[in-house]
Amino acid sequence: MSDPQESNNTQDWDPRAMLNNLSFLEKKIHQLQDLVHVIVRRRAQSTGQADEILVQQQQLMTADLTSIIVQLISTAGSLLPSVKQTLCPESSISQQFGVTNQTAGVSDNVVFQHNNSVNKLEDPSDMTGFFGAEQNCPIEDHEMKSDDDADEGENLPPGFKRDANLRMHMRGHGDEYKTPAALAKPHKESSSEPILIKRYSCPYIGCKRNKDHKKFQPLKTILCVKNHYKRTHCDKTYTCSRCNTKKFSVIADLKTHEKHCGRDKWLCSCGTTFSRKDKLFGHIALFQGHTPAIPVEESKGSAGPSNKVEQLEFKYKSDAPSGSSCRNVMDLERSGEDPISYFSPLNFETSGIDGFQEFPRPPFEDSESSFSFLLSGSCDYPPKNGRYTGSNDME
Amino acid sequence: MKKQLVPESSSSRFDLLSEEIVFIILDFLNENPLDKKSFSRVSRSFYAIESRHRKFLKPLRSEHLTKILNRYRFVSTLDLSMCPRITDASLGVISGRCKEMLRSINLSRSKFFSHVGLTNLVMNCGNLVEIDLSNATELKDSAAAAIAGAKNLERLCLARCKSITDIGIGCIAVGCRKLRLLSLKWCLGVADLGVGLIAVKCKEIRSLDLSYLPITSKSLSQILQLQQLEDLVLEGCFGIDDDSLAALKLGCKSLQTLDMSSCQNVSHVGLSSLNSLAECLQQLNLSYGSRVDRALADSLQNLSMLHSVKLDGCQVTCSGLKAIGNWCVSLKELSLSKCMGVTDEGLSSVVTKHKDMKQLDITCCRKITHLSLANITNSCTSLVSLKMESCTSVSAEAFVLIGQRCQFLEELDVTDNEIDDDAGITDSSILAIACGCPGLEMINIAYCEFISDRSLKSLSKCSKLNTLESRGCPLITSSGLAAIAVGCKQLFKLDIKKCRNVDDAGMIPLAHFSQNLKQINLSYSSVTDVGLLSLASISCLQSITILHLEGLTPSGLVAALLACGGLIKVKLHASFKSLLPPLLFEHLDARGCTFQWRAKTFQAELDPKCWKLQLADAE
């Protein structure tokens, strides 16, 4: 591949790209100039300030300078017609910073941001080492990203509305596509800039997501950090109102669960639920004494909330077979809310959800009247005929 | 005859007989149900003995259940098919009274019970071995789960229980491990999964009816691995094709009866797999299936145990029949009903080779002439049942041959056997048959215009006759009917539609003598209110068809309907709907009686649409 490149093939470079690069260079040179002026001015006025602040400011300036110069160098390097792919000695620095050489469009918000509440990078001197960690990716990243960017949203055979879905699809194509960089969210602009990949660390000491951990696995965005922290290090306060078992600390997780909760409608007498009928039958064929369990609403002719109560008991309780079913009914909280509403999936958006606010949700309960109906009618309920117990059927 | 007993204080001589001996005597009285009734009226001790002896009950009215069950404490078989209204409460009574004695219950015509009653029944009657729940279309899986509690259940019929699904059958498969006979005909909610589970869990299954179920080779291969399977019915299983039958090669060595009628996707290619059953298969039903030609017949020639073949509705070729004739087995039963292409040549070649033929059905084989009949009667002298409805080419003399040679005949159907005035069945034919076949139980002489009272009088000698169908025989009068009533006490089905000369005078002897009559068709006859009302004394009368009776008035009809307490089905002309009080319908509905309304206008001719001529043209 290198031979045709070095033979100065004039069709290997794109004039338009070169123009872009040149204008970029111009812009950067101006930036550089302004920055240097600022430094000069600051140095002149620097008397009244504390030393640490001065030092920090100086470091900041130096960092800015360095980055702009780096960009200048890399962009200048890309002007060379022989430079097309990554395998080029001049581009070692750009590799180090995960920069693509072909199209060197840039966005200004690339480099350092110190305004995050969560620790990201503490000093610029760490930068190299930190980015060194990313060294192995850029090559593939570079290749794949260019493909992506070229075809983004237009020529991909399956078009995906959400890039998360695109990434999931790409995983199916093979290992080469599974690198973090390949699966990273593509930029919205048509040109890809020399980005510095930002990573975040969890503040909890000892967590694998904490930067101090030996096997540090960084988090990608602030939202990831927030969700991770809630999920892993906080109490799970929200409970699914259908199954009453699963608890979550993140509302989005709860909503996702509720989409699927209770979908397993095939129920065995041992309490196991199955999403498909043939799975249930395979299970029963395999074991002695298991029989299919029948949804209760069939046996009880009358409609009403008490019906739904039963339905919940026997359909969604995956742990407790018969005997405890009545007990479960007793265990319910009774906050006297409207019994019909607890089935609505929209029930959960009652209060604004931000942070770890406590959120009054009726898990699954009844008004007084229907509950008393339950109590009085409890002797009629199926547990007595052993349909749901394993004990009657087990040999 | 009752002996003159000595005064009550001294014991009767009959008391010397032990109860067991009297039981044995009573066992001989099974033929006529009224005999046991008269036995129990003899004395108190006889009454008590009969109450202890009776094991089989078939009540006519569900209102009397409590009383009946109080009297008969040892009932093991309860046939409730004549009681259309069995509620959960009735089942409660039954389970409470019969308890462990009850082994078999037939609820096939009752609709008003639910899983609650069934649970009760199953819990109390732990020895239940047989349950017939056919036609319970409202029963759902909860009922099936209740049945699964019958641990000793061996025979279960769920035909037409359309609301039961795989889940319910799954429960039964797990619960009733001893199941030997299961009928799921028309249980459209059951498919491969349920049937597969039966095959896995119920290893004792001997007989399985899966007609019209949407099963495929997936469950069929599992079924054919049942080691004890003897009888398999796959009527109308459209999911079964030639490839599915390859599973037969898996080594099912016990299958004796296979019914693959109306399996449209099975051809002779698939049937060649039947060779693996050569040592065991005895009865094969391929009705309404593929063409019966040489290839098909040859594919079946290795079945050395085969004795019954049904090919109804198939296209038959002469070479096919000849090939059948060349089989090494000797068939006992052959049905070519409604087969196209049956000729004298083909049929004769079959019957002359298969001399042990006992049942032959050649309904609607219009090309058959007296030649075939001569061969049949010559060769198949042990013929027990002959059905030749619409064999219009057969002449009168041929029937005489039947009477002369087939003395073991019990069942004869010669409906519609004439096309022109000269040919056809006459009184002398029937005479010959009646004399020659004293064991005759069923005869159909519908639309045989020349049959008169003479035939009926000769038929009255056949004391076992239980079914007489003489529709459209205008020469029959009440006196002929009276003769039948007197002579044929077993009569339970009578069809005298369009016999214009039968009037009330014929009904009175029927009412008096035919205490077993269950079903009667009097349409277009001359019976009036009086005659109909007199039939009310027949307590087991269940089904009456009374269309276009000129002498029928609304008030008379009301009286008759109210008086016939056992009625469950009435076919009436729609014009009566508005003439009868609605309260009557409510009352009858509560009693379990249903009405079927017909709106056809009065048709004077015997064969108004000239069916016979049309069919003759079609041939």
UniProtKB/TrEMBL annotation, chain A:
Q: What is its main location?
A: nucleus
Domain STOP1/2-like C2H2-type zinc finger, which positions? 265-294
Keywords from the named record? Metal-binding, Nucleus, Repeat, Transcription, Transcription regulation, Zinc, Zinc-finger
Q: Which Pfam families match?
A: zf-C2H2_STOP2_3rd, zf-C2H2_STOP2_C
Span list, region Disordered: 141-162
* UniProt-annotated location(s): Nucleus
* Positions of the STOP2/WIP2-like C2H2-type zinc finger domain: 200-234
PANTHER family per the record? PROTEIN SENSITIVE TO PROTON RHIZOTOXICITY 1
The name this protein carries in UniProt is C2H2-type domain-containing protein
Which species is this UniProt entry from?
Rehmannia glutinosa (Chinese foxglove)
Automatic annotation (TrEMBL), chain B:
* Gene3D superfamilies reported for this sequence: Ribonuclease Inhibitor (3.80.10.10)
SUPFAM superfamilies named among the record's database cross-references = F-box domain, RNI-like
Residue ranges annotated as transmembrane are none
Q: Which domain of life is it from?
A: Eukaryota
Which SMART domains does the record associate with it? LRR_CC
Please state every residue range assigned to the domain named F-box/LRR-repeat protein 15-like leucin rich repeat.
125-269, 279-403, 426-569
What name does this protein carry? F-box/LRR-repeat protein 15-like leucin rich repeat domain-containing protein
Q: Which organism is it from?
A: Rehmannia glutinosa
